[in-house]
Design brief:
Elements lengths: L7 E4 L4 H12 L5 E4 L11 E4 L18 E4 L17 H18 L4 E5 L26 H20 L2 E6 L2 E3 L5 H11 L16 E3 H13 L6 E4 L8 H11 L11 H10 L3 H7 L8 H8 L2
Parallel strand pairs: 1-2, 1-4, 2-3, 4-5, 5-6, 6-9, 7-8
Amino acid sequence: MDNNFGKILITGGTGFVGKSLQNFFLERNINYSLALRNTDSVFNKNSEIHGIGDINLETDWSEALEEVDIVIHLAGQAHFKKIKSKKHSNIFDVNTDGTISLAKKAAEKGVKRFIFLSSIKVNGEVTLNGNCFRSSDEPAPKDAYGESKRLAEEGLIKVSRETGMNFIILRPPLILGKNAKGNLGLIELLNFLRLPIPFGGINSNVRSYITTDLLNKILLQCISSEKALNRVILIREKSMISTSELIKLVFSENRRKSSILKINERVLRNFLRLFKLKNFENKLLNNLEIDDSEMNHIFRES
């Protein structure tokens, strides 16, 4: 069955989020095409597939963008080092230059809507004193990944202003689902190696997160929503939970048993600081609260 959304192009379709979105679209008979760096791992052989190689300023998007109405740009490189310079890795080539180049080519080809999956890391790493991150906040990324996404957002907005192509920028927090990456990947690795998870006693913090189920629904609404156009939108699940609750949720989602230890929070903080693991302290012990009022206005009331 054909959809009425126009031609949809998905980048990063074989990644963690991309695979989930493909399954979501297939269940609803929504047609789409794929632009992939590596075409060997495609599981939906019936979709239109374009091999594009590495994503950077030189990527040739012309064939993939032919007659495309909507781009859903999920492709990107994860990174967790401190900001040093744009030369210290190719994360800026992929996440920043690659996104801006795609946006420019998309506008040239007449794409009507560009949906970009950014990150809450553009806002920062932690929230303090009961404050929440909002889209109106001054960006404050603390690592190369967050900075690369910030620059990509700025470039996309500039392209939109110059060409009239509509954009939607989504900033999700930690994404929860099958085969999750990042810090959830670390937790799952510890479990796979039958090592105990030492964060069972972290009950006093508050973390925003989003499941692939909700993210897929939001991406679907972005395809047709007029309210969402030309906005930066922070997204999350309705509830916010502690780290210990989050870990339990990770294993329930993946139907795995886990050995969770309750270790004193101060002991954990001292341990992480001793081994210079501030990044993990921020993500697993501190607060990250997101104001979802704008999201509710745009999506849950649509």
